[in-house]
Amino acid sequence: MSEIDLNLLRVFDTLFELGNVTKAGARLGLTQSAVSHALGRLRQSVGDPLFVRAPGGLQPTARAIEIAPGVRVGLAQLRTALSPSAFDPGTADRRFTIAAGSYFCTLFIPALLARARQTAPNVSFRIQPLGGDLLVDLDEGAIDLALGAFTKIPRRLRLEALFQEELVWIAAAGNPLAGRRLSHTDLTGQPRVLIAAGKSFEALRLLTSEGGLERRTIVDTHDPTNGTTDEPPASVYDAMTALAVVGCTDCIALVPKRFAQQDGERHGVVILDAPDSGDGIGLTTLWHSKFEEDAGVRWLRETISALVK
């Protein structure tokens, strides 16, 4: 017997069940002609007519009746083997790799690990920073999930919105700006701590291209309307550093609100009653389409989504 196309076995199984070429075609999404052609190829491969015409439809031959149970079991086993494996967090022994910046590592990763220790005790995590090789790591499966402010993505990736983060102005609790309603004029000329990602200091919400993947980062620009052309007192790479610097200086900074709410008091920092700082930044989850049906990655996405709500 020659090698058989698995699609022919699907046609055989459906014909055996329904006994009608038209009905089998409708179930399989094939034309009547395509089903007849497939049956002809299968007859040639098996060396048996398999079905004969009879009143009311097709009747299986003795050979068809003999092989039908094995074909059905084999197709079912293939579907099971190729379907997403089940993931039981209570018993799963698996390691997930997540790429995330200091924002998520400070505010949400600890809560994720705490939840996992309770519900998935044998699951472990590797947390690594977002880097220029992120797209390559996603393509190669080295990263299961990335957390950040991603915007434009290649078609092969998947993106899910988590929430919109508000940006707020902060100052030390003893700063004269604290405790009163401020205008844009009040902020003009104030010494600022700038937050920049990598080597770029050019835009408030910078788009950094990483091989076709664009990520928004929180970056405070040297605004020409700020009333000074002097170099800012400090430029730092993350909001955590900005909080610490603002808490012990006369500088102000624009930071994510959740950062300021969680750690501001510890650093002696307050949120200023300042004008709206725009629409904020949309935080997202990013993963590769090849993990779309991965039950473990789905559990991870759902757990993170529940934690940030």
TrEMBL record:
Natural source organism: Hephaestia caeni
MF-aspect GO terms: DNA binding; DNA-binding transcription factor activity
Gene3D superfamilies xrefs: Periplasmic binding protein-like II, Winged helix-like DNA-binding domain superfamily/Winged helix DNA-binding domain
InterPro entries: LysR-type_TF, LysR_HTH_N, LysR_subst-bd, WH-like_DNA-bd_sf, WH_DNA-bd_sf, YidZ_PBP2
Protein name listed in UniProt: LysR family transcriptional regulator
Similarity field: Belongs to the LysR transcriptional regulatory family.
Domain of life: Bacteria
Keywords: DNA-binding, Transcription, Transcription regulation
HTH lysR-type domain sequence ranges: 4-61
